[in-house]
Amino acid sequence: MAGCNPRRETKMSDKVVHVGDADFDSAVLNSKEPVLVDFWADWCGPCKMMAPHYAQAAQRLEPQVRLLKVDTERAQDVSARFAIRSIPTLALFKGGREIARQAGAMDAGRIAAWVQSHL
Known about the structure:
Elements: E1 11-13, E2 16-19, H1 24-29, E3 35-40, H2 45-61, E4 66-71, H3 76-81, E5 89-94, E6 97-103, H4 108-117
Parallel strand pairs: 2-4, 3-4
Antiparallel strand pairs: 1-2, 3-5, 5-6
């Protein structure tokens, strides 16, 4: 999986959008739909293992929920602001506020069930 381009921090990969410090607030906090964010890093083995499951969860959950990814190495301001201490970490946002958080890798079914249990 390629990292974010530092000059243009948003890119589409299937249904999962990558965001960074520059566009996090507009993509997540200002979204009308609930947003699930996967905080990850390229060097993280469990993050890489979860990536295809996260993409599968996007197929199940969108358009009701937007799924985004934040590379913690490239988006250090956002990662610090939300006190991301371990990765992968999933954070669910609704109405501009974080409503749930889960650390650790999950498969697509568990991701979808976890999100639906908090909406």
